[in-house]
Amino acid sequence: MGKPCSGVTCGGGRSRSRSLTRRLTGGATNLRTGPPGGAVRRTAATGFLLYSLIVWWHETARRHPAQPLRLWHGKRGASFADMLAALRLETLRNTRQTYFSTPAIPPGIRKFIGQLTRLVSLAS
C-alpha cells in the first residue's frame, strides 16, 4: 500500500490544482491583458474619485456637518470617517423611506428590518 494522497499533491508529487488551473485557462500561465501595474493605477484613481465625491457631497449637499465619531484635539472639521458614516446613514435612511415605508409589510418583517437597520447603524 502506498501513501494516501493529500489534498494538493497526488500521483508522483504533481500538483492537481496547478493542472486544473491550466485546464481551465487553456494552458495560459499569465492571464494579464494590459501593461503591468494597470490595476493599481485604476484602483488609485477610483479611490481618489470616490474620496473627492464624498467630500464634495458632504460640503455641498448636506445641510449640517457630520456628527464626529471621535473628538480629535485641535480638529475643527469633520474627518473622512465622519463623512463616510454620515453618507452611510443617510443612504440607509433614504432606502428605508423608499422601499420599506409601505403599510403592506407584515409586522414580523418590519421588526426584522428594524433590527437590521440598527445593526447597520452601529457598523457606520
Describe the secondary-structure layout.
Elements lengths: L15 H10 L12 H23 L19 H20 L7 H17 L1
Query: Helix- and strand-based class?
Result: mainly alpha
Estimated radius of gyration: 25 Å
Question: Mean pLDDT, as a whole number?
Answer: 74
| Annotation field: number of helices | 4
Helical residue percent band: 55-70%
**Which stretches are low in confidence, meaning pLDDT under 50 for 5 or more residues running?**
none
Describe this structure in words.
With 124 residues, the chain is an all-alpha fold. The protein has a domain of 86 residues. It contains four helices and no strands. The longest helix is centred in the middle third of the chain and has 23 residues. The protein is extended. The model has no long low-confidence stretch (mean pLDDT 74).
Brief account:
This protein has 124 residues and is mostly helical. The chain contains 4 helices and no strands.
